């Protein structure tokens, strides 16, 4: 498959008014399947999964872009895109229009002409070179659509410009024990990346504190002419996976072209926050952070014009259940827990209705017979799982409360 190629622009615009974001185009990588969320992504992609009530995971990335002055964006979609595309067009495209920019959607199979669509994160950008060239950006910011975060991208773009690097990668300090889930960077005192390894089995610790590692956040700023050339080189490499983390970033680090920008405090008005919600445990626990009155960051609704979905369904109502149940659990829109049920450390999926008398989360062995149970103790409950359990449980007559299984599932 040959990438789109158009003549390279003869010049790129300078930033206007001292704001580097004015010359930047955002690329949103929103095609992820989210396989570690299992049944939650059977019918829709990970960015479209509900989070904090009727919001979607993707809302945080979109809100960050608008808050940071990134008014032009191309969203690259792929797996199970219908819900996501409706959400982008109905809720967010008007907000980008109102900001004086625009939100374009580039669906992989439509762009490539093949049902497989994009074959890697870098390929998603390569295939849209013509659309990017048409916008004549000075910088291109590439960001993931499936992280829950609050970041002002302007300091990152400013640091990129000041560094003189061709590429800047955002990084966050994480415990070394959890570094296997991320791409891990090393950097010198000036901030230049000196090494990078993708999801290592034995993550290298930081020199200053070996108990911690410097993790890539999957957010990048590039000088567009440099990235354009690298993407075309990568597209011609038959041995490449055409992925930013596996191919573009490691090669750039080896040539000394990468600056590392660490996520740190960004002022009282905007507390930085970043969570990878790629597992059932992380997805559940992160939502609990948002359940109380003191939320860890602003909700994405705050950037939306009134009357354009700004009033999302209250999150507290989705969490409360019937006192004292459920506990440490998330009830997604369209799910419910009946009075008299006991539910602990669970995710109740849309369409799942936990009946009265059912106990979930207190007996790991029993839970595992009917539901999906994570290593961290989260129980995922779907309508299909409840129906399967109901079909295999025979309730004795005369109203007895006991039940027994007629066979293993």
TrEMBL record:
Residues 327-381 form the Glucose-1-phosphate adenylyltransferase/Bifunctional protein GlmU-like C-terminal hexapeptide domain. GO terms for biological process: glycogen biosynthetic process. Residues 26-284 form the Nucleotidyl transferase domain. It holds the Pfam family Hexapep_GlmU. The keyword rRNA-binding does not apply. Residues 1-20 are annotated as: Disordered. Keywords: ATP-binding, Carbohydrate metabolism, Glycogen biosynthesis, Glycogen metabolism, Nucleotide-binding, Nucleotidyltransferase, Transferase. Gene3D superfamilies: Hexapeptide repeat proteins (2.160.10.10), Spore Coat Polysaccharide Biosynthesis Protein SpsA, Chain A (3.90.550.10). Residues 1-14 have a biased composition (Polar residues). GO terms for molecular function: ATP binding; glucose-1-phosphate adenylyltransferase activity. InterPro entries: ADP-Glc_PPase (IPR011831), ADP_Glu_pyroP_CS (IPR005836), GlmU/GlgC-like_hexapep (IPR056818), NTP_transferase_dom (IPR005835), Nucleotide-diphossugar_trans (IPR029044). PANTHER family: GLUCOSE-1-PHOSPHATE ADENYLYLTRANSFERASE, GLUCOSE-1-PHOSPHATE ADENYLYLTRANSFERASE-RELATED. Belongs to the bacterial/plant glucose-1-phosphate adenylyltransferase family. This is NTP transferase domain-containing protein.
